[in-house]
Structures are given as structure tokens and as C-alpha cells.
Write a structure and sequence with these properties.
Strand content: 25-35%
Number of helices: 4
Number of strands: 7
Shape: globular
Order of helices and strands: HHHHEEEEEEE
Oligomer: single chain
């Protein structure tokens, strides 16, 4: 089973919104969490539908909130979903980033927190097309969803019909709170 890409694992934004408001949003947020869990079990086409459902649910919640801080947390969550969509559009249709993670070099990993400084970014990429030379692109975003920095990784060979993990060392900017990984064919 694939995991949820960190950019759309918006549970932290949901928690901040819930803590900031007196309104009862538990049921709405439980629906979003259920859809996030369903995301990992879906194929690429179905995932787009799940992302649409999550975004629509968040839009309804955002419209019903009176608290500015809670609304801002929901806006951050929706920004992250839009970033995910943009990164999906940059990825070749026969290439899928199945999973990604960050491994710190010096410090133990802090769960749910993007470390600052030198890290190894791991991505599992599936190739449903022909043999391909691929290039990963990692984009870092601040808490508001604004792009902080983009890095292009080294070229990797990915045979047809396989799923492989690739790694690249990157320097995470201090103002980055999220990241997204896309892949493209080399030379494109």
C-alpha cells in the first residue's frame, strides 16, 4: 500500500483549524481523514477523484467557519492540495511517484516535521511505460504554500514495468515546511 504524499497529508492543518475554532467540525474533518486514508489504496485515476472530494469538503468547511485562524488553516490545506495537483501535472503519465520520504543525516527524524539542512530525499517511482531516463524535481513550500526553492535531481534509469526507490541529497531551506516530488523524462 502506498502512503500519502507529505504535501497532501493535511492532518496538521486540520488539527490547527480544529484547535482554533469553537465550532463543531469533527464530522467534517473525519470525512477528510477518511478520504486521505482512501487515497493510499487507490490507483492514479481514482486518486484524482479522492483529491477532488477532499478539496470540495474543505471548501465547504472553510465557507462555514467564522474563525479567521481556523479559516487560514483550511486555506493552507487547500493550497497544499493545489500544489499536489500542479506537481501531478508536471509528471509524465507513465511515471508515478508512489511514495517519498526524508532521512536526516545528523539528527534523528522528527515525525511529521520537515528537517532543515542536508537530508536524503527518497522517492519510490513506478514506470508503467517504456524504459526511461528520469529526473526528479523536488519543490519546497513555506507554510502558506508559496514556493521557496526547486531542485532538479540527477538522472536515473528506470526500466519499463518496475517500481524503484531513488535517492538524492538535498539541502532543505529553513523556511520550508512542505515539499512535493515530481518526475519527468530526462531531456524534457
Amino acid at each position: 500500500m502506498a502512503s500519502i504524499p507529505p504535501i497532501i497529508d493535511i492532518r496538521d492543518d486540520l488539527r490547527r483549524a480544529r484547535e482554533a475554532t469553537d465550532e463543531d467540525v469533527r464530522e467534517d474533518f473525519e470525512t477528510v481523514r477518511d478520504r486521505l486514508d482512501a487515497f493510499a489504496d487507490r490507483d492514479r485515476a481514482d486518486r484524482e477523484g479522492v483529491v477532488d472530494e477532499i478539496d470540495n469538503q474543505l471548501l465547504r468547511v472553510e465557507a462555514s467557519l467564522d474563525d479567521e485562524e481556523a479559516s487560514r488553516a483550511i486555506q493552507f490545506a487547500r493550497n497544499r492540495i493545489h500544489i499536489y495537483r500542479e506537481n501531478r501535472e508536471q509528471t509524465d503519465e507513465s511515471l508515478v511517484v508512489v511514495d517519498s520520504g526524508v532521512r536526516q543525516h545528523e539528527e534523528p527524524d522528527a515525525e511529521g516535521v520537515l528537517p532543515v539542512g542536508e537530508v536524503t530525499l527518497t522517492s519510490t517511482v513506478a514506470n508503467t511505460g517504456d524504459d526511461a531516463a528520469i529526473v526528479p524535481l523536488v519543490t519546497f513550500y513555506d507554510e502558506g504554500g508559496d514556493e521557496v526553492k526547486s531542485l532538479r535531481g540527477p538522472e536515473f534509469d528506470l526500466p519499463a514495468g518496475v517500481e524503484e526507490q531513488i535517492e538524492m541529497d538535498v539541502d532543505v531551506p529553513s523556511d520550508a515546511s512542505n515539499y512535493a516530488v515530481s518526475v519527468s523524462r530526462a531531456g524534457v
